[in-house]
Amino acid sequence: MSSTVFSSQSYKGTRDFYPEDLARRNYIFETWRKVLKQYGFVEYETSLLENAELYIAKSGQELGGKQLYNFTDKGDRFVALRPEQTPSLARIVANKFGELKFPLRWFSIPNCFRYEQPQKGRFREHWQLNVDIIGQEAGAVELEILNLLGELFKSFGATQNHFKIMYNHRSVLEMWIDKNGLNPNKPLVYSVLDDWFKKSLEKNIEELKNPVDESKVGISDETLIQKIVDLTQKIGQSWADYIEIASTFPELNLILGKIEQIQPELEYELNPCIIRGIAYYTGLVFEAFDKNPQNPRALFGGGRYDNLMELFGKTSPAIGFGWGDATMHEFLTNWDLYPDFQAGLQKVGIMPFAETDLEKIYLEIIPALRAEGKSFEIDYDYTRNQEKRWISLKKRGCSEVIKLGQS
Ligand code: HAM
């Protein structure tokens, strides 16, 4: 026998799901599944292992770089544990491109691996609901997705007091940057806006003037800096220009004109600071935030990605989002939105007093309980005090008891 005693902790940044934890996660998954099926989405699955090059080519510097779990297998293939689902989705759609009936409304709940610093709501392994519509050009489908996101939240009992959905459009921001002569500073403006709410105004202005990353071009003109500040505060000419550009995109017009009518009780906001880190987005981008400042990370993120299928030699418009289980768990816990999992559960304790009782249990009692839809648990401590046996069954979740034989 080996003398090594191993740590009983899970691998760094992963979670063990004890039964109560899994009950919560399953509740999240089942609530998502129920709504999505009603909305005509069907579920699919792919392998955890993928060609690592896919992420290097398309996911961007973080996901396809330092966060990637990759290795070379025994056949010299360069393999990754998927950090996200979207490239796998593009691959399987491309693989049966001629056979599939578009538009596809598909969803999946894969586990994804990212080599990042574990922290509250952020892990090295997380589960991520992925919802995508493939084969539909920008337009009404953008509104459908934003509406669906609101419906998903509502199905957990969430209201506008709890969360806010923010959206933006990559091309609008790009055109605004061009219009204001900020083209040489584009990477800087993107990165500063992306982090805008995480830092103070002074820090943001300082970063715009003297970027920490020296490969980015700083802005010396104070009026340009003020324009960016005004844009983030949605005031003045900056914001007027932004809205004017936005109104040239039919999908944004549709959202701006209709989302408040469709979801009057929820909060949706066009916000130029929604950038999204992933490289493949081409149009609308969106995220949701918990209104509880203790949970500052995006609850979900997504957008339009019309060029990703090109990785596999196909062309198709696409839009979708990923919604993690970990931030959702924080959200439901903080706002006390989990249901009582014990309520309505009927587990019956069965107390035999000798082995001779077992036949009756298996032939009569269990079939009858199953027919009534009740679960059960048998206590085999024949010789123990009756009261103590009952207390111990109660502690294990039994609400009633069937006693057999004699005490
Ligand atoms: P993402 O923004 O990288 O997008 O991730 C989406 C969501 O997954 C995040 O908002 C967060 O809830 C969760 N998440 C991501 N990383 C972690 C982590 N390390 N720990 C816990 N939760 C995490 C994507 O992955 C896109 N592929 C989504 C998409 C689907 N776009 C179009 N279709």
Question: Could you characterize what this model shows?
Answer:
- By secondary structure, the chain is an alpha/beta fold.
- It is built from 14 helices and 15 strands.
- Strands 1, 5, 6, 7, 8, 9, 10, 11 and 12 form a 9-stranded mixed sheet that branches.
- A hairpin with a 5-residue loop joins β3 (69-72) and β4.
- The longest helix is centred in the first third of the chain and has 20 residues, at 19-38.
- It starts with 18 loop residues before the first helix and ends with a strand.
- Bound molecules: histidyl-adenosine monophosphate.
- Histidyl-adenosine monophosphate binds next to β7, β11, β12 and α12.
Q: How many strands?
A: 15
Q: SSE string, helix = H, strand = E?
A: HEEHHEEHEEEHEHHHHHHEEEEHEHEHE
From the alpha carbons, calculate the radius of gyration and give it in angstroms: 27 Å
Assembly category: single chain
Distance between the termini: 44 Å
Helix content: 25-40%
Helix/strand class: alpha/beta
Averaging pLDDT over every residue, what do you get? Answer: 95
Most strands sheet: 9 strands, mixed
In what range is the share of β-strand residues? 15-25%
Q: Which outline best applies?
A: elongated
